[in-house]
Predict the structure.
Amino acid sequence: MEGPANTVNYFVAGYAVIFGVLGFYLVSLIVRWRNLKQDESMLAELEKKESEG
Amino acid sequence: MNAKPKFLTVLDVVAAVMFVTAVSLVFFYAPLERVMGWVQKVFYFHVASAWVGMLAFAVAAVCGVIYLIKKDVRYDRVEFAAIEIGIVFGLLTIVTGSIWARPIWNAWWTWDPRLTTATIMELVYFAYLMLRSGIEEPERRARFGAVYAIIGFLSVPLTFFSIRLFRTIHPVVIGSNDPGAEGAFDMTPKMTQTFMFSLLTFTVGFITLLWHRVRLGTLADRIEQLKMKLQS
Amino acid sequence: MNGFTPFMRALGAVVWKDLQAERRSRELISAMLVFAMLVILIFNFALELESNIRANVTAGVLWVTFTFAGQLGLNRSMAVEKDRGCLDGLLLAPVDRAAIYLGKTLANWVFMLLVAAIVLPIYSVLYNTNLFIPGLVLVILLGSEGYVAVGTLLSTMAVQARTRDILLPILLFPVVIPVLVAAVKATGGFLQGLDFSEILPYINMLIVYDVVFTAVAFMVFDSVVEE
């Protein structure tokens, strides 16, 4: 009885894509969040300066 | 003001644990399929991704309806977040579907109704983004987004059935004559468990990602408002 | 029943306005027709429209032609409206928005049917095929209705965006695929003389699409024309 086809490579490719895409999206969320946080603190400082000056 | 809700942290942990568990189940617990071998295991996350893609679209459409009724911008944010996440999972669905198809049908693409519908759905998602980016006023952008989210979502089942009808009556020459048989296989109990758990994991993952993405959108809006206040 | 008569009167007014304007300028129909002829011409060279292969391909060629020409008409119809400020004028009138939607959709439908009425005989002559089958007329009626029902709504949105011209096809085509698939298959079925029971599922699909999307577009149209 011949065993199942040797499709390990496709399996690896499939999960590489899954982990890659999900990982990329997670990282993008984190990076965007950090950028926005930086913007926020910068704007808060500007606002403080304006209300003082 | 911006504190991360504790429940979200809990959800993060739960989602992460579930994901690791699901991967382990797929890699080690689920048996090797008799004919297809290892590539069949792609199926678990492929279908789960497709499910999330549909779920995301449904969430977006519902938010669209609510937004049109209540004009509450929070629903617009959830809608937009859902579409973005839907794009990610839709992409996963299509690519993993293609990878699964290749060793089985010896073709990178089969015009199978589900995969084709998923691709068309992805195109609708992108059209949604293009619509929004073409409109300056936030209020109109939200309104139009809501309308297209609804129209787009409604078109998906009709698209699926029309293509399936198309294939049933005129089956494609390459591949099996049974349109339902794309890579069909019998599932043993272990496979079914893995499959169900993958679906659940991806659903929890979707909710978690959605929440995070909505928070991102809320922060972005707040910063826009700050910018405008400072400019005046 | 109270608001029915003014509603119908408003609807009639919108349709009449569009038809009259078109009758005077003939801008839309001529653009759509020329475009349709060009598409057919291009297909002649792009595909081997030899008589034996042609039967299968005719339905597809026809509907691609209608799709592209239809999109052109929808785009122009709305763009003209917006540029001349007619849309704003219409909206200021104390008229149910839904009447405006139905009126414009009806007018767009008439334009598309006119184009079909001219394309069919020309195609018949050019390729020596008889396209005058009652079933085909039914498919064109149903298919074009669904197409303009969604198209009118989407073109109203598209025309208000910066990327106006390219946006309509991008928004419309993915969503209108059920119509395309069902219309092509039904048309092909009638041309091949298939049993009606085989074509019926596609006709049903068209009807379902038409009903669902006309109703939904009718309900949400208000939201795309607010100021």
